[in-house]
Amino acid sequence: MLGIRVKDAAPVPHDHNLHRLDRRRFLQLGALATAGAAVAGLAGCAPTSTKAQPTESTPLTIGYVPIACSAPIAIADALGLFEKHGANVVLKKFSGWADLWTAYATEQLDVAHMLSPMTVAIDAGVTNAARPTELSFTQNTNGQAITLASKHYGSVTSVEDFKGMVLGIPFEYSVHALLLRDYLAANGVDPIADVELRLLRPADMVAQLSVEGIDGFIGPEPFNERAIQNGSGKIWLQTKQLWDKHPCCSVAMAKEWKAEHGDTAQAVVAALEEAADILSTPAQFASSARTLGQEKYLNQPAELLEGPFSGVYQDWHGNTHTDLDRMSFGDPTDPAAIVWMATQMARWGLGGETLTMDDSSIIAAARSVLAPGLALSGEHLSINGVDFDPFAPTRGYDHMDSVIFR
């Protein structure tokens, strides 16, 4: 049993009652231990022998969660870039990460939009779900934020004031959850004993904030912007202020599928690269926001996406800033960043018996998901003010209180 206190969200009225009940049942045995057990049960009965393989006439289904981070996938579809590069692709939308994780683990999907740490988790088999997986494309860097309820404005002046709060996270194997824990611990707040972390689908974060079910969340766009728009929240800080150029979302491919469909895999990546170039072009910001706002993609007002793309945002005090690196798309995958994520999974007890605080196992787990030819260099990272050496990933954490290690 994991020693991490993560609770399911209190119900918020919406039209997906059946999904909410299923998800509550999925999580009721406790955080990611439940996710692993549920996926394992599904994997045991998955009809893998009858799964159709993509061919020229059978499209490849790419699963995604409708957040701004998935923009390269959506733009590549909308502009016909997959077809242009020779891939027959259809998209399938998932409301949250638990559902997508299950679909991928049970081989209903071979290619999926994933939070980057998910690739390490499922490739290493840190829960009972395991599937050899490659992180084939980094969709975005930066672009996330910690948003707190507006009622806390004036009373919260430092991270120490987070003590006692309920904070939403989108998934345990997310850079959000890992970076938030590290941020809290680096500032003297125990992310296990001093706060409650609550798993929430991104679409439910603002609703929970509005009804005071949570005190804040760390999450993707356009939900931070939506909280500002409806008055329920304010951005405490951009996650790039904790770790500039941090990866967030990726496109993952099952290794056995890629081995059999190398041309299609290459075409998918080429289409995503072209889409990322478009998303990085200022003259295309407005049209990209309109395209992504469509119901079949993100189903969000275009104006909520223009800020993240252009870099404009309001800080905790309501001041407007323009940061052209607020969110970027298609940056090269950073091997050192994947090592850091693997380290944090081990640090917080999310690695089970597979991924522990051991340098060699951490580095091996990170290397396993990297695309061929992508090597780990010795370049250090600066995260929450701490120097991180990817060749000595556990160094620097031995001074932490033992309660941090689960």
Structure description:
With about 400 residues, the chain is an alpha/beta fold. It has a domain at about 335-405. Helix content is about 35%, strand content about 20%. It has helices at about 15-25, 30-45, 70-80, 80-85, 95-105, 115-125, 175-185, 200-210, 225-230, 255-260, 260-280, 285-295, 305-310, 335-345, 360-370, and strands at about 5-10, 60-65, 90-95, 110-115, 135-140, 140, 145-150, 165-170, 195-200, 215-220, 235-240, 250-255, 310-315, 320, 325-330, 380-385, 385-390. A hairpin with a 2-residue loop joins β16 (about 380-385) and β17 (about 385-390). The longest helix has 18 residues, at about 260-280. The termini are close together. It is found in: Cell inner membrane. InterPro entries: NrtA/CpmA_ABC-bd_dom (IPR044527), TAT_signal (IPR006311). Keywords: Cell inner membrane, Cell membrane, Membrane, Transport. Its main location: membrane.
Quick overview:
The chain is an alpha/beta fold. It is 37% helix and 18% strand. Strand 8 (166-169), helix 7 (175-186) and strand 9 (196-199) form a beta-alpha-beta unit.
